[in-house]
Amino acid sequence: MIDVESLSLTTIEKEKIQHPNTGAIILFSRNYQDPEQITALINEIRQTRNGTILIAVDQEGGRVQRFQNGFTCLPPAASFVSQPELAEKTGWLMAAELLAVGIDFSFAPVLDVDCGVSKIIGDRSFSSECEQAATLAAAFSRGMRSAGMASTGKHFPGHGFVSLDSHLALPIDERDLKTIWQQDLVPFKQLISEGLEAIMPAHIVYPKIDSQAAGFSSKWLQQILRNELGFDGVIFSDDLSMEGAASVGSFTERARQALTAGCDMILVCNNPDAATKVLDALPIKYPPKSQQRFIAMQGKAKINRKALLSSQNWQQISSQLKLLNHA
Q: Under 8 Å CB-to-CB from 35, ≥6 apart: which residues?
């Protein structure tokens, strides 16, 4: 999964999109102007690929909402503690708005439990109580699924107990597996039991479990996530350009280790040269199991944008969210 620089594609970006190792594009705020422009960009990407390609965005709500002008302002996940009945409705609305412009999926919901120490997570978490976080995130995920969008739970096995931002450093979580299992993994366990389609691991080291960060650890991804938790969906690496991934080595080494550990797809964002190196260095192969998992991530839009915005359901939920945002 790679990114693009602006509001339309350059010749070099078109070549990258056509590369056999490119499986997906992630879009950012810099790629967005308004619904019409983003629809045109997405169409351009799909026409360039001339085949299946996944298109994703981070549209959680609160501090992390890449598309804003022309989209409903989504509240942070922590807001639903006071109005839990809105969690599922908001998941539906977020997904329906994105699907209507051609996005396949948003990297949501956040399944981290807020332990009061992580500023990068904070109100992106649904709750500081693991059971409540699980309940609200599951409702949000059901809303997404009802609109036709797959969910991606992040950041496995939990980013809420470290103060460092893994974009800027490699956080260390000294807790033991029993503690993590009883707290941080509760939302993951619940959503996996409800059919969670994808998971993104954290660039965090849990030294009592493994010396490698979770996204590069076969113990975390294969033994615990696949075997013990029974997860059979897509594992997306977190962005390999983040500082939390740097200790593994070069970008190609990071990519190889993430894939070896058990990731189905790796993200290389905000570094075009690194993306090119990774695309060219990796073997061109398509594990059948991964291919099957990717199919579940394809968006299944049920309503076009004009019909969505005129629907009573969208208008009612959008109004409720405006009140929640100003509460």
A: 70, 71, 101, 305
Is 280 labeled as catalytic in the residue annotation? no
pTM: 0.96
DSSP 75: P
Q: Does domain 11-325 have CATH number 3.40.47.10?
A: no
- pLDDT beyond 80 at 8: yes
Q: Which residues contact 268 (CB under 8 A, 6 or more apart)?
A: 1, 2, 239, 240, 241, 251, 255, 274, 275, 278
Any catalytic annotation for residue 167? yes
Q: Read off the amino acid at residue 311.
A: S
Distance CA 320, CA 327 (A): 11
User: What is the Cα–Cα distance from 278 to 264, expressed in whole angstroms?
Assistant: 15
Q: Report CA-CA distances (Å) from 290 to 83, 113, 246, 301.
A: 37, 28, 25, 23
Catalytic annotation, pick one of 184, 238, 239, 264:
238
Of 58, 165, 167, 232, the catalytic one is 167
Residue with tokens 């550990």: 261
Residue 108 CA from chain centroid, whole number: 5
**Phi and psi at residue 160, to the nearest 5°:** -80, -10
169-213 pLDDT per residue, tens = 889 999 999 999 999 999 999 999 999 999 999 999 999 999 999
